Amino acid sequence: MYSSSEINIGNTFLGGNSPIRIQSMTTTKTMDTVATVNQVARLAKAGCDFVRITTQNINEANNLKDIKEGLCKIGIDIPLIADVHFNPKIAEVAAQFVDKVRINPGNYIDSQSSISEKLIPLLSVCKKHNTAIRIGVNHGSLSETILYKFGNSALGMVESLMEFVRICKNHNFNKLILSVKASNVVMIIDANKLLVKKLIGEGLNYPIHLGVTEAGSEDEGRVKSAAGIGYLLAHGIGDTIRVSLSEDPVAEIPVAKMLIDFYGKRWNIANGIPHESIRIATKYFSRKPPLVLTSGKSELADYSNHNESINVDSGKKGYEICKLVYPNLSIEELIIRATVDATILMLQNKPDGIWFENNDITTHDQNAKLSLEILQVLGLRISKTEFIACPTCGRSSIVLVNLLQEVKKHTSHIRGLKIAVMGCSVNGPGEMADADYGMVGTGNGNVDLYKGRKLIQKNIKQEQSIDALINLIKISGDWKNR
Fold it and tell me: Which domains does the chain have, with CATH numbers?
């Protein structure tokens, strides 16, 4: 963990009390100017500060100019970000029309090219047009060179990013935003803390963008996003955030606002959770209560049946449970507050379990479900199926939100499995690499089916893909009846 002094350095280093901004991404096709303009306008009105747009080819890069002009005509002045993968020339065109270009080191440079050879022309264009660059590393798309040197690790993510940062610095380009993202919450936390230390060690000062990739939808997506983003915000790390949900992108904005409202004040939490409005108590049990980290008797238990406490001063070993009592929060607020507070407690204090009370606004069952969801995303207790799913974007060729709902409907009862639903191949196969089964959109409404990292079946029609997934799980011996 950071020492108190390191947290203070981080606060100054990351912009002091500057406001934290919200980013989202369009799901429309970039060549559909009207649809994209309308969606950007909806996001802006919802409170989004920056909007990222898929930019896959030169035509889409040029169309960013029309999108920008269309927004100006309806009085929407919001910074746009071009999301570019694979082709540096596309980034150079896009940089003429947008405020920021996002590039991913893992798939921006081919193995035959030097980084400088491909990056320096973009720096020149960005200097000319005063365009910023976000260097965004995803855990699932590290280059073969980085994987060989550092493995698929937090260090590998940071070193991949720093290669590009150092070239930018050497060529006097400093209009940078940095991000290291993954679908694993603990990996994100480790990578961002390592990134801050690395930047401070090299005397560099750049803003950091936070997000959890492939967080999924509904409560699961919100818990996963809150755990990673909220923990880092509470430690003074982060200047912009994106809550990546497999839903309408407008649904991301209220969640992001709550995270900023509750945890975006550059708290120094060296001595505890940054809230006076909750009570934290520690109880000790002589027998394991239902929400300790090892498996218990009941997933949905009435806490009132587990009030047997012991005097730990007597020397008798007990089980430490952190109890967080909240002041009449709505379920939406409780999901965010309890997730971040519990993540801080679990990763720093390492108690044996968590216990929520919300003054009878939420039921014991709701509190227990939330507890289990939090423990699952932290990898501390597996109690259900985990779904890894990207927020859909203009690259997706499948109706991802519908497919994810169907996958959940048929497989959510299989405890312990990880199942991924990915919209395209840009980060799909990489980010779902630790899933047991995965589906990746490949074009024309088709998906490829994976078992682990192995491609099992190609180009399955979306309407036939659920049966194909269920059949694969069954013949692999992992299927369980409800």
Answer: 4-263 (3.20.20.20), 279-377 (no CATH), 386-475 (3.30.413.10)
